[in-house]
């Protein structure tokens, strides 16, 4: 736990240096600029879409920026040579960036909608959705040497994670096959938080259990790719 606390402090320092918190606040202000001119009756309809967009920005792109910062500063090799374990290294990133995402989401929801939302599905939706986007962003950033190359390729996994659940949620094509996508659950939870979705018992279980299972698979994938693209290339093995 001492190593994890140290890693978290390092990530907080890096996040401050890279101005991730500033960018998160700026993102929240942009979403508020979209929501506040709307009538109060329309805000709960728009807020799940807004929060999904915010999760995508903070989750997917912030972690990619963090990885490429470490590559550029050549600190990744130094981190690998320390006793820090992979789960501590990645957990520190996730804890810091999830905290930023959750803070921004709660502020945006509270300013736009007061306390009319349901806090438990809101927190669960943001937490699970951000974790999914963070790990996918982390995985996809590992093989690339430059942020430019990654940014072009990242549009594909980003679309896969976001577009099908949004199509289902909006009613354009509410086919059950779209439940296979891991971000479907968090989006349903956000809809429930603002009274736009009445979750059945099985949907409530699915909305939490399916993302958790996907997170376990993605975590293992991240570990394998980290060894392949970071550890082995650094000559640490």
Automatic annotation (TrEMBL):
The chain crosses the membrane at residues 20-38, 50-69, 90-110, 122-143, 150-167, 187-219. Coiled coil: none annotated. It holds the Pfam family FLQE3_permease. Keywords: Membrane, Transmembrane, Transmembrane helix. This is Fluoroquinolone transporter permease.
